Amino acid sequence: MSRLPRPGRLLAETFRRGPLHHLCLYGFAGRNAHQTLGLLVTRRMETAGLQPLGFVASDYALLISGLEPVADPAALLVPKALRDDLEGWLGANAVMKRTFRNVATVAGLIEKVQPGLRKTGRQATFSSDILYDTLRRHDPGHLLLRITREEAGRGLVDFGRIEEMLARSRGRIETVRAPHVTPLAAPLFLEMGRVPIAGRGQARLVAEAADRLLAEAGLG
């Protein structure tokens, strides 16, 4: 059904599970590098109309879910294209907003959510997202944004390891189109920390749900 990853090769698996299509890349580059790779690859998938919905990263692999199948994983992993996308991506993504929320909490601008308090985690996230977007728009050189970029660069944005991973494989990407979830990919569905992608895929799901609701109510 699949194969084991080999030295000097990058193994890519594609399969469908339920209504979603999945792409799994076994880079063995560490969680931080895979998380960064997930943000860059899903950005390219969105541009290509593949409608990604989210991804999850582990130390050994990256699992991306979307509404359209990925026919050519190698086209999403061109090193120069990924580096060109890095700067544009760095400003606005879920990981940067998560890092900013931690920075804002330490700075005292966001209250840390504790059991028994009325403010919910969703409210705290919403407040930090407003602060982040406002500072990026009106004061991009703000101290909190500089600290956020430094923290992300130190711990989350490990692009150097991505380049090392791609250099080792030198474009030799082995693609397996599996009939269902594979043994190596299965544990990734149980990983915590899924990063959602707000794009055309999410908009399509909302539109389809609205159509079903209208049809059920006899208004379609």
Detail the topology: elements first, then pairings:
Blueprint: E1 10-17, E2 20-26, H1 31-47, E3 52-57, E4 62-66, H2 79-90, H3 94-106, H4 121-138, H5 143-156, H6 159-169, E5 173-177, E6 195-196, H7 200-216
Parallel strand pairs: 1-5
Antiparallel strand pairs: 1-2, 2-4, 3-4, 3-6
Written overview of the protein:
It is a single chain. The protein is globular and about 50 Å long. The chain folds into two domains: 10-89 and 159-210; 94-155, no CATH class. The mean pLDDT is 87. By secondary structure, it is an alpha+beta fold. Helix 1 (31-47) packs across helix 2 (79-90) and helix 1 crosses helix 6 (159-169). It is built from seven helices and six strands. The chain has helices at residues 31-47, 79-90, 94-106, 121-138, 143-156, 159-169, 200-216, and strands at 10-17, 20-26, 52-57, 62-66, 173-177, 195-196. Strand 1 and strand 2 (20-26) form a beta hairpin. The N and C termini lie far apart (43 Å). Helix content is 46%, strand content 15%. The protein has a six-stranded mixed sheet.
Task: List its salient traits.
single chain, 220 residues, alpha+beta, six-stranded mixed sheet, 6 strands, 15% strand
Concise synopsis of the structure shown:
The chain is 46% helix and 15% strand. It has helices at residues 31-47, 79-90, 94-106, 121-138, 143-156, 159-169, 200-216; strands at residues 10-17, 20-26, 52-57, 62-66, 173-177, 195-196. A six-stranded mixed sheet has the order 5-1-2-4-3-6.
